[in-house]
Amino acid sequence: MTSAGDQPIIVVPCYNEEHRLDESGFLNLVMSGRVRLLFVDDGSTDGTLTSLARLRDAAHDIDLIELSQNCGKSEAVRRGLLEAINRDASVVGYFDADFATPAEELLRLIATMKGDGHLAAVFGARVARLGSTIERNYSRHYAGRVYATLASLALGVTVYDTQCGAKVFRTIPTFCEAIARPFRSTWAFDVELLDRLLRGNASVPGIPEDAFLEVPLNSWRDVRGSKLRFADGLAMIVDVLKIGINRRRGALADR
Fold first, then answer.
1. Strand partners, 93
2. Staple partner for 15: which of 24, 42, 67, 130, CB 3.0–4.6 Å?
3. Other C-beta atoms within 10 Å of 83: how many?
4. How do residues 157-188 score in pLDDT, each as one tens digit?
5. Contact, 103 vs 23, CB < 8 A?
6. CATH assignment of 6-99, among 3.90.550.10, 3.40.50.740, 3.10.129.10, 3.30.479.30
7. Could you write out the DSSP letters of every residue in 200-242?
């Protein structure tokens, strides 16, 4: 395996994405020369792996990890990020396989990160505003606003959109430590990761709030076929509440 060096590596977790995978879109993305893609097949049972192998064989800047069984999105992302770090990438990230976030928006997040050495993480944010094209189901939008409010309260910082599937990170020690162990949550892992980055641990300091940046996306669209069920949404809320409780306990213990 070749070293990625300064070329960002973006992890794309995939589970049964055969009918939603935009192969030409991903090929065009790597043709920009500004990013490498690392697909993680999370034990798919359809033709996803065949499609991913075809992508890998078609472009030098596309790689593939195959997980023998379904581990869940959080673990698929984590394993991909660990591999990206092993390849010495200074900037890594993850991106949803359905292309809900356009390629040019991902590249804009990467450029924002590279343009400001103070930043440790840059997240896309689905903010509907004049001049933007954010096509989102109304019920999911309002549910997302409630969830984001709970996440902000749990984390003690104001964050607009924890669940947008386009995020990039600088591979500083705190980030490497944050993904060194599995996440407790499958669907709320974005919030759990942010909590780990903010808090740090005995080995590494937490990242200051001003080193995080949310960038409003100019374009985003809901893509049919989401695997998030109602029960998963409830589990996400429970997980976020647990994060808030644990964070509060940690603060009290430090007094």
1. 10, 168
2. 42
3. 18
4. 999 999 999 999 999 999 999 999 999 988 89
5. no
6. 3.90.550.10
7. B-SSSBPPPGGGEEEEE-SEEE--S-----HHHHHHHHHHHHH
